[in-house]
Design goal:
Elements lengths: L1 H10 L4 H5 L6 E4 L7 E6 L12 E5 L2 H11 L13 H16 L9 H13 L4 H8 L4 H7 L8 H5 L13 H22 L1
Antiparallel strand pairs: 1-2, 2-3
Length: 196
């Protein structure tokens, strides 16, 4: 359960409330091009719903993650919430996971998924800010700048996870994909902590 949520939050740049309110009916799979599949995610509770657009969409197009999430989605009925408990329970489970992974509590929060994902995409897309601003649904580039960390620290995800090259998501361990998303979120927070 947690593996899919971590992947969705990190790779789709979702805020915790957006993530926890999702159901399978909010996700549309586009498999028309098998080499470039993507998921379109309807955001029912966007942050700016009182000021601007009442409904927003996020796109997730990391092929390995999309394949994993398509399999993960099959576990749920159409209108089931992915997270059946309260946001507080999710925060406690997330804290327990981060504490057991890092050995220290409080280094990362559920909001780390969005900020870590933004930093990951910034580096992956070779600092393409307009693309990142559109993908992350930021109205103002100054707000986006608070999410981006340009430090060139060694990626902690490489230390925590060693996925074999050429493995596909259909054969990957879901926990490994969750570790990847979680490790990238940790990487972001360690960069911020060391820069202060």
């Amino acid at each position: 359960l947690i593996a899919g949520l971590l992947c969705l939050g990190f790779y789709a740049l979702l805020r915790p409330i957006e993530l926890l309110s999702l159901t399978p009916s909010d996700i549309v799979e586009n498999l028309s091009d098998p080499l470039n599949p993507y998921l379109l995610i309807k955001i029912c509770l966007p942050k700016a719903r009182w000021k601007g657009v009442r409904q927003q969409y996020a796109r997730l197009d990391e092929p390995c993650v999309v394949r994993f999430l398509i399999l993960w989605l099959r576990r749920f009925r159409h209108m089931d919430h992915f997270w059946p408990a309260s946001p507080a329970t999710f925060s406690r489970r997330f804290a327990k996971l981060s504490s057991s992974t890092l050995g220290a509590p409080g280094l990362v929060l559920p909001s780390s998924l969005r900020t870590g994902g933004a930093t990951h995409c910034f580096q992956l897309w070779k600092e393409d800010l307009p693309r990142l601003q559109w993908r992350g649904r930021w109205r103002d580039s100054r707000i986006l700048a608070t999410y981006i960390q340009e430090l060139q620290a060694e990626s902690i995800s490489l230390q925590l996870l060693a996925l074999p090259r050429g493995s596909s998501a259909a054969h990957a361990d879901p926990a490994s994909l969750a570790d990847l998303a979680f490790a990238d979120a940790i990487h972001y927070h360690l960069q911020v902590s060391h820069s202060r």
